[in-house]
TrEMBL record:
An example molecular function term from Gene Ontology annotations: oxidoreductase activity, acting on NAD(P)H, quinone or similar compound as acceptor
Matching NCBIfam families: resist_ArsH
All copies of domain NADPH-dependent FMN reductase-like, residue ranges: 270-414
Protein name: Arsenic resistance protein ArsH
Gene3D superfamilies listed in its UniProt record: 3.40.50.360, Vaccinia Virus protein VP39
Database matches in InterPro entries: Arsenate-R_ArsH (IPR014063), Flavoprotein-like_sf (IPR029039), FMN_Rdtase-like_dom (IPR005025), Methyltranfer_dom (IPR025714), SAM-dependent_MTases_sf (IPR029063)
Amino acid sequence: MARDTYNLVQSRYGDIAKYSLNTQQSKVEDNIARAFGYTAEDLKVLPEKANLALSCGNPVGFANLKEGETILDLGSGSGIDVLLAAHKVGRNGQAIGVDMTDLAKKNIQKAGLSNARVIEANINCIPLPDSSVDCIISNCVINLVPAADKERVFKEIARLLKPGGRVAISDILARQPLPNTITQSMALYVGRYHTMACSAAAQPAATIPSFVNKLSSLAIPESEDNADIRQKYRPFLLADEAAEDWVNKLELTTAMEMAAQELRKSNNRIKVLVLYGSLRRRSYSRLVALEASRILFRLGCDVRVFNPEGLPVKNDTDHDHPKVQELRELSKWSDGHIWVSPEQHGNLTAAFKNQIDWIPLSTGSVRPTQGRTLAIAQVCGGSQSFNAVNSLRILGRWMRMFTIPNQSSIPKAYTHFPDEGQPGDQRLLPSGNRDRLVDCMEEFVKYTIVMRPHLELFGDRFSEREEKRIKEMKECANQV
C-alpha cells in the first residue's frame, strides 16, 4: 500500500510538472504563493514556471536561515524553497533538495546556482551523513507520506540535524479524525487548487508533539560514538523499540537550548561521571543512576557510568589496581559527577563511600574533583529520608565540589519500578519523585554550563597562592 502511494505521488506531481512546462505562468500561481506568505521579491528571483502553486506556507520565511548554513528541503517539487534557501545561505552555504522528480534540478540549472543541488530519493531514507544539516525545511510534503512511514521521516530528520539544529515545516494537519471517505480517497491524496487537496493523509495535530520531541535530543549518535566506551560505560542505552521512552517526551527546552549553544560554540560535550552505591543484582540506586544518565545523555552530555564491581576496599597498597586507576582517570576526565546511594542504617552505603575514598583530593598538582559540579540522589527502602543525601552533600563539599541546590530522595524505591520480570521493570514509574530527578539533572546541566568556563577561577585560592609564594622564596634563598 505504501509503495502504491509513493508511486501515485510521484506520478501525479510529475504530470503537474510536465503540464506546467507547456503552459503559460498565470497570475493564479503568484496569487496563491503570496497568500501563503511569499513576497513579490521572493517570486522575482525564481526561474520562469518554477512556482507551481503547490505550497501551503512559506517555511523559508520563518526558518531564520543564516549565511554559511546547510539547508535540507524535504520534497522540493519544482524547487521554489530550495532556490530561495540558496539565496539566503549565500555562496558559503548549501541548499539541498530531496525529491522523487527532477523538476527542481532543472530549475536550479536554469537559475545558475552553484550552492544548490537536488538528491533524488525518498524523504524517509536520505543518503546524507548523520548530523550534517543546520536546518530542515518542508512545504506541504510530509502529509503526503503514508501514516505508517511518518515516524520514519521524523527519525530521519533527527538523524540528519546537527546538535542544536532546527526544523521549519509548513504542512496540513487534521484537527479531528477524518472520515474514511476522505482518508481513502486517492483523488484527495494529491492535487492542486481543490480546497481538500492533499488532505487525505493529514496527520492529527495531537500526534505531532510526540514526533517533535524525538527531534529534541542532543545525544551522541551511535555513528559518532566510541564503540568501546559505548559498550563499557553506557549501560543506560535503550534499544530502538524504546522510542516511546518517557525521557524522550520530557520538555527540557531551556536546558536543551543552553546545551545546544555550547555544542555550537565548541562541540565540547559536558563530561559526566555517574557513581552508584550498591552491588546487589537488582540495585535500585543503579536503576535510578541509569535513568539519570538517560536524561543527561539526551541533553548532550558524554555520560559514563562506573561499575564498582571489583573495586578493592580502600587500603594503602592497591593504588595501582586497574579499577582504582579507572575510577581516578574517570574523575579527572569529568566536568561533573552524579552520585546515587541507597540509605542503609541511616546513612550512605560503604560501597558508595569506598569509591569516593579512592579518589584523592590531589594528585601532584591535579585535583580530580575540585570545582566540578555534583548532583546527588538517594533511594530509600522505607519512608522518605534525607540522611544519605545530607552525607553526600558534606562529602561533596569535602571533595571541593559544587553541589547543586536541588536533590532527589526516592522513598520505598521498590514501589517506583515494576516488579522484576515485568515489562519496563528497569524503568522509573511516573511520580513527583521522578519529576524531581528530572529537575536535578536539568539543574545540573545548567550549573555545569555556567561554571565550566570558570573552573580555574574557582580553584584559585589565596592560601594556595601564599603557600606557593613561600615555597618559591625558600627555594630562591637556598640557591643563594
